[in-house]
Amino acid sequence: MKVPRAQQKALARSRVKILLAKAVETAKEDPELAQRQAAIARRIILRYNIRLPYSEKRLFCHGCKRLLIPGVNARVRLGHRPKAVKITCLECGHVYRKMMSPRNGTVAAAEQR
Ligand SMILES: [Zn+2]
Question: What is the pTM of this model?
Fold first, then answer.
């Protein structure tokens, strides 16, 4: 019996959620295990074409696609002019900038090499 695609996606989404939660939990004690859990989660995301919310999307480096945990292998700084949250990957040096709009307080993503 074939499982409907929507059901497969829902199952995949719940598995990704569990894997990422575990990866964040274990990142400090066992970084290698956390990286592996994140890599499996990423493979599921790519296979089932799942979109992550920002809170989970920022866990992956846009350069090397590894798991980013602030204080372990990522640096988070607030920049001004332009106002932005800068997330630096300490594995590959890639800087991700999340722009903060001064007028209405909304955020728009931007990337810088
Ligand atoms: Zn990186």
Answer: 0.79
